[in-house]
């Protein structure tokens, strides 16, 4: 059975998830940081694209007291094996899976490797393989390109967006969802608003994806 897929991200009021040069910006407030910690603690795996690893170098770990029984699996979508050996996801502090294409033969000292897809990672096939490994819930934390791919492929169940009370602007700053984008409204991804809550000085919007 494929895992339930939850996308979670923080953005500015104008939909940006980073600065104009792609550098990380703290868009969450303290309340949202706590919420994301709890969310991470309740999932089986946390996934990002290699673009996020290269820009943000996230740890993707969960404090032991918040992890249900074991650390969630850290997953990086990395078709060509570009994750630097110094990346924090390769620090050995939690299990890590680097998912490459079948064309890539790089191996990683502190991570398992899954070859999945001809040129880019095949997300449907990946979810099947994760389901086989007992992964029931997968948290997708970005970035922009990866969120588009999951939404476009119809693989997302829930979308949670924290909207910080700030504007970043800039055409080149990545938005919540990038990728190819819709050519017409009929290609848009329809969402149903399930909850909206004030969270400190920001807003949390929670959607389900209409299939
Ligand atoms: N505010 C937030 O909540 C938040 C969270 C995370 C990231 N960010 C920001 O997001 C930005 C990074 O986003 P990004 O769009 O540049 O990179 P990304 O989405 O993290 O990674 C994209 C890369 O993943 C690889 N990939 C492999 N298989 C894929 C597939 N099936 N679909 C899509 N991608 C696949 C591709 O590289 P290969 O072809 O080499 O495999 C692709 O270029 C950074 O600026 C970061 O700060 C913000």
Describe the protein in words.
The chain has helices spanning 30-41, 50-56, 123-132, 144-152, and strands at 4-11, 45-49, 73-77, 96-100, 112-115, 137-140, 158-163, 191-199, 202-209. By secondary structure, it is of the alpha/beta class. Strand 8 and strand 9 form a beta hairpin. The two termini are 18 Å apart. It binds NADP nicotinamide-adenine-dinucleotide phosphate.
Give short descriptive properties of this protein.
211 residues; alpha/beta; Dihydrofolate Reductase, subunit A; 9-stranded mixed sheet; 18% helix; globular; binds NADP nicotinamide-adenine-dinucleotide phosphate
Could you describe the largest sheet, including whether it forms a barrel? Answer: 9 strands, mixed
Rg calc: 16 Å
CATH superfamily annotation: Dihydrofolate Reductase, subunit A
| Low-confidence region ranges | none
End-to-end distance: 18 Å
Q: What is the count of structural domains? A: 1
Compact description:
The chain has 211 residues and is of the alpha/beta class. The protein has helices at residues 30-41, 50-56, 123-132, 144-152; strands spanning 4-11, 45-49, 73-77, 96-100, 112-115, 137-140, 158-163, 191-199, 202-209. Bound molecules: NADP nicotinamide-adenine-dinucleotide phosphate.
């Amino acid at each position: 059975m494929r895992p339930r897929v939850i996308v979670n991200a923080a953005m500015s009021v104008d939909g940006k998830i980073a600065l104009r040069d792609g550098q990380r910006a703290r868009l969450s407030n303290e309340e949202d940081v706590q919420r994301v910690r709890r969310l991470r603690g309740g999932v089986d795996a946390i996934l990002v694209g290699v673009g996020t690893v290269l820009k943000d170098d996230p740890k993707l770990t969960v404090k032991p007291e918040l992890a249900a029984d074991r650390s969630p699996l850290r997953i990086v979508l990395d078709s060509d094996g570009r994750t630097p050996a110094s990346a924090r996801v390769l620090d050995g502090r939690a299990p890590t899976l680097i998912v490459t294409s079948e064309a890539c033969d790089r191996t990683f000292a502190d991570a398992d490797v899954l070859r999945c897809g001809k040129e880019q990672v095949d997300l449907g096939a990946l979810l099947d393989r994760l389901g086989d490994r007992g992964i029931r819930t997968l948290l997708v934390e970005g970035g922009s390109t990866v969120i588009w791919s999951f939404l476009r492929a119809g693989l997302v169940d829930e979308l949670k967006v924290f909207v910080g009370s700030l504007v970043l602007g800039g055409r080149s700053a990545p938005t919540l969802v990038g990728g190819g984008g819709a050519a017409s409204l009929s290609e848009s991804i329809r969402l149903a608003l399930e909850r909206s809550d004030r969270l400190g000085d920001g807003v949390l919007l929670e959607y389900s994806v209409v299939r």
